[in-house]
Write a structure and sequence with these properties.
Chain lengths: ~120, ~325
């Protein structure tokens, strides 16, 4: 099976930016890709996205109409939840740059840091 | 039997003493890589000695012989002797259960922790491909979000993720330092060490050595990645990057008595860095080697003494085999 990862993302982008139900033709018009993908390719990928749960599909007359299952913001929020709430027992999955800090803690460290910086520039 | 007792005593001593000894003096912050190795060596030593103790109960001490065939026959005879008595058979059964249970539980939990990480990572990758914008210039995927975050997904499809909120909080040098920190995690595959120590901690949550080893490894991989990042970035710049990002969020979990790891890292980057001296490094390495060798020695000593006893000479073995 060919890999459609790139095209999948581009199609979802187009669907999200429209913000309303679309058919394959609408998406094809909005896709700004070189070379322009074939109608059937876009249709195939949209069916894949539907089956993967990214889009809903309803038949209107003879045309399939697609809509994003959830907004882009919802997906991002899901990612951030996962990224920031990952507990210690799942640290093998992803590694954060830094955990959060209490406000008092960070204020004290900021002072320490500024002192070190002025000391460094005085030297 | 004596080998099993020695090994069990050693395991008990290790489980009790190692967490206290290794946590003493805070030397691990000065040599995080060595600290990780020492904690893992202690954990492996405990695991191996428990499994070997079980095996020592199953297989009675036999004469050491250069000739493998002789050794095997001696083994058979000693086994027959042991299993002839009910006590011997019971001890062997207990030993087999101990060795198998410990091995199976450890292997299962480590495998589950690896598989779980792979699964949730694949899901995360899938969503990321849809909503993120790869930046060749940063070597990272940028996600449009008001949550300031920088993190990495280790593995074959390694990716670093930066949110737009984090980009606003960090200047170019601070961002470079943060990315260098994440690359260190990815290059050195810290996720594998964490999957291993996390698996052990989950397999035996009552054994403090395993849970402490995991907690310490979590902390030390961060210090280690900071040290690697500080080779290409200024330590103060890295400290500022940490502070800018950490200060923007309150911690999800309650803090331990020692304060957050984030605070420790910032403090450690501000004060001049003193790596562990050569002598102490060498001494610690010797300790690590001892940790790994002791279970083997514990098993080998009774075998070696048995070799001098000649309670089971090869001639007797062959005679016994002939009469069957």
């Amino acid at each position: 099976m060919p890999h459609f990862g790139d095209l999948e993302a581009a199609i979802m982008d187009a669907v999200w930016s429209t913000g309303e139900p679309v058919c394959v033709r609408d998406v094809l018009e909005r896709l700004d890709r070189e070379p322009e993908p074939a109608y059937t390719t876009v249709q195939t990928v949209m069916d894949i996205l539907y089956r993967k749960g990214w889009m809903t599909r309803v038949k209107r007359g003879r045309v399939n109409v697609y809509e994003a299952a959830a907004s882009r913001e919802d997906y991002v929020a899901g990612l951030m939840n996962e990224a920031l709430a990952v507990a210690d027992d799942r640290a093998a999955m992803l590694v954060k740059f830094v955990e959060g800090m209490e406000p008092g803690e960070s204020a004290a460290l900021r002072e320490l840091l500024n002192a070190a910086k002025t000391q460094g520039s005085a030297r | 039997m004596s080998a099993a007792l020695i090994l069990l005593a050693y395991a008990a001593l290790l489980a009790f003493a190692a967490p206290r000894l290794l946590a003493r003096g805070g030397w691990t912050a000065r040599a995080p890589r060595l600290g990780i190795i020492a904690w893992q060596a202690a954990a492996v030593s405990l695991l191996v000695s428990a499994v070997l103790a079980g095996l020592a109960l199953v297989v009675p001490t036999v004469q050491v012989s250069a000739d493998l065939a002789n050794l095997f026959r001696a083994c058979v005879m000693a086994l027959r002797d042991q299993y002839a008595t009910p006590g011997g058979a019971a001890a062997a059964a207990v030993g087999a259960v101990l060795a198998l249970a410990v091995l199976a539980r450890a292997a299962w939990c480590v495998a589950a922790s690896l598989a779980g990480a792979l699964r949730s990572r694949a899901r995360h990758h899938g969503v990321l491909t849809m909503v993120g914008t790869p930046s060749v210039h940063l070597g990272a995927v940028v996600v449009d979000s008001d949550e300031p975050a920088v993190y990495c997904l280790p593995g074959r499809r390694r990716r670093i993720v930066v949110t737009t909120a984090a980009l606003r909080l960090l200047d170019d040098q601070q961002l470079a330092a943060a990315l260098a920190h994440e690359r260190a995690h990815l290059d050195q595959r810290h996720d594998l060490v964490l999957a291993w120590s996390g698996g052990l901690a989950r397999a035996f949550p009552r054994i403090r050595l395993f849970t402490r080893a995991h907690a310490e490894t979590l902390r030390l991989v961060e210090l280690l990645a900071d040290d690697v990042a500080a080779r290409s970035a200024d330590r103060i710049t890295l400290a500022e990057a940490l502070l800018n990002l950490a200060g923007a969020r309150t911690p999800a979990a309650a803090l331990g008595a020692g304060g957050s790891t984030a605070a420790e890292r910032v403090r450690r980057l501000i004060v001049p860095h003193h790596p562990l001296g050569r002598l102490r490094t060498a001494l610690t390495f010797t300790g690590v080697a001892a940790l790994l060798a002791l279970p083997i020695i514990g098993l080998a000593t009774p075998i070696a003494t048995a070799a001098h006893l000649h309670y089971c000479p090869p001639s007797a073995v062959s005679a016994a085999a002939a009469t069957r």
